[in-house]
Design brief:
Layout: H1 23-43, H2 48-60, H3 64-114, H4 117-120
């Protein structure tokens, strides 16, 4: 990957180097996103049902805290799903990007081999 903009003068840039990403970096980030997704899906949801049950019990006993706890549980569940979905999207996108870039690379190699240009590199 390369940004089409020069670093600002006076510092703050990348020292004049190009921004590069290799397949191993993409794979590592995608793998971590997938691992986080799995952990969020299991560990992040383990108290949902018991919290819901406690909320209902408090509501049935006429405690205002029950309604508040139910609201917190609902917000937690929505935010947990949002975060897990984001991790899944990151993982899937990086898997697709790596495969797509590899296919493009393979196509370029095949086209160079089939062209007259290939003769100049031998």
């Amino acid at each position: 990957m390369r940004l089409n903009q020069a670093a600002a003068s006076g510092g703050g840039g990348a020292g004049g180097t190009d921004l590069t990403v290799n397949q191993d970096d993409l794979g590592a980030v995608g793998s971590e996103a997938y691992t986080l997704y799995n952990r969020l899906s299991g560990d992040g949801d383990h108290a949902r049902q018991s919290t819901h049950d406690a909320s209902i019990a408090l509501i049935n006993d006429n405690y205002a805290l029950g309604t508040a706890l139910l609201g917190v549980n609902d917000i937690w569940s929505r935010q947990l799903r949002t975060l897990a979905d984001a991790c899944a999207n990151i993982s899937n996108h990086l898997d697709h990007s790596a495969a797509s870039h590899q296919k493009e690379e393979d196509d370029i190699v095949v086209s160079l081999r089939a062209s007259q240009i290939d003769g100049y590199f031998k």
